């Protein structure tokens, strides 16, 4: 009941209500549909795999509810260029203000500083946010199966695809995975962090893996901190990673990426 995801969800509904007053739906939709600046998120990951490289989605995250401030000297554009120079395939940029100290301006600045496709990392509860994401030039959106019904996810996926955005569907148990596999997106994220308890276990990825058809791209998310974590995943044929903290805590997030994956 009082878990963090519920709180975040309530905040999101309030935020969307306020946003709809500030910029009416028809207007944000027009902005989204007029934005022709698209980068293919899934293709960027596949290109790395085709070159025998890991597909790294490098996250730009200042703070989180479980860790507090992760990086005080926060420079989204600089971090994005640094990630791009060091072999990242894609960016993930937190836009949630209340819980992650994110902002849409960070997404815009990060994406503009490089040529990588960018994920709007936020909690999507209303189609309005999908149009916002595209208006801000996001190339991918996140759907969290723990809180969305299957009909809602199907609906959001159809809108995202119609706007030319990719979809990362995030799960952390078998029931959520069953729903995620009803979608058409190839990108299935397994969050090693339980968003209700903040507990992190890489076994979450390993346990769900065998139930995922080989035409999907499994993204292991959260808690990848050491080269042993990376090689454990690679031994299990998981070669797509969403990593934030391990990079953002280091003086150069790009160098940290390089040493974790290519060191
Ligand atoms: O910083 P980490 O442990 O490397 O995790 C990154 C990413 O997986 C995490 O930020 C995340 C995964 N799913 C989310 C959903 C909402 C907010 C944040 C997240």
UniProtKB/TrEMBL annotation:
Its EC number(s): 4.1.1.48
Presence of the UniProt keyword Cytoplasm in the record: no
Keywords: Amino-acid biosynthesis, Aromatic amino acid biosynthesis, Decarboxylase, Lyase, Tryptophan biosynthesis
Pfam family, one: IGPS
Entries under SUPFAM superfamilies matching the protein: Ribulose-phoshate binding barrel (SSF51366)
NCBIfam families: PRK00278.1-2, PRK00278.1-6, PRK00278.2-4
Annotated family: Belongs to the TrpC family.
Protein name, as recorded: Indole-3-glycerol phosphate synthase
